[in-house]
Amino acid sequence: MNEIKAADIEKVLSPIWNEKQETAVRVRQRIGSIFDWAIASEYCQFNPVPATHYLLAPPTPKKQRVEHFPAMPWKDIPEFIAKHLRNGEHYNVTRYIVEFVILSACRSGEARGMVWEEVDFSNRIWTIPAERMKTKAVHRIPLTDRMLEILSILREFDTQFVFPSPSKQQQLSDMALTSFLRKHSAHSNIKGRVATMHGFRSSFRDWCSENGKDPIQAERALAHTVKNSVEAAYHRTDLLEQRFVLMQDWSNFLGSYHKE
């Protein structure tokens, strides 16, 4: 162990230091503990781990980290929907929820936990209670024509959750959606990576940005936290009426693929 230097440890940790920083930090701590034990047991004379702090960049605070989820390019989504989600199979919960998440730009967990009491068919609104939101604030989502069509089909079945698991007594698992995307090779903007459900939110934002949609309406649709006081004043209303138009435009685009 006396032959192991700080540079050797740096060489091992550097490949994962930026991408999996929390794991790398824990590994470094574990290595340090092993050396402390070895010194106490007289297997070696020094611990090289502290010196790695001069060789590896300081850990990035969590608030400063930006995680980029693999996302399908927005121009490719209509074809993906036509070929893999609207393929004529009458009842397939996984297909319906994947399409519903894309249509609504919600987080997949919000859709998986969706219950019928949250749906207002008359006013075409899905209201997600604060306790189910990441922001801990009530979020209203306008229901487009296609979203209502999906809900009307699923309403025929007597289940607590709108998108139930095969057992019908609990919500569908996140892995079911991930497996679906992998099975159908949902490509992304990151080479070699399959698109993620969360990535479709980025796709929606890119579509808004590149098609001249109001950025604040887009942020409200995504239920993002308000960043400054000017936006906060604007966000006193959730812009629901305006978002009806925005989300129907998005829905129309998603259904625009026609086989040549």
Please tag this protein with its features.
260 residues; DNA integration; 4% strand; hpI Integrase, Chain A; single chain; Integrase_catalytic; elongated; mainly alpha; Phage_int_M; DNA-binding; 11 helices; DNA binding
Describe this protein's structure:
- The protein is mainly alpha-helical and 260 residues long.
- The chain has two domains: 59 residues; 181 residues, hpI Integrase, Chain A, CATH 1.10.443.
- Strands 1-2-3 form a three-stranded antiparallel beta sheet.
- A hairpin with a 4-residue loop joins strand 1 and strand 2.
- The longest helix has 20 residues.
Please render the helix and strand layout as text:
Blueprint: H1 6-17, H2 21-40, H3 77-85, H4 93-104, H5 108-112, E1 119-120, E2 125-128, E3 139-142, H6 145-154, H7 174-183, H8 199-210, H9 215-221, H10 229-234, H11 240-254
Antiparallel strand pairs: 1-2, 2-3
Helix pairs in contact: 1-2, 4-6, 9-11
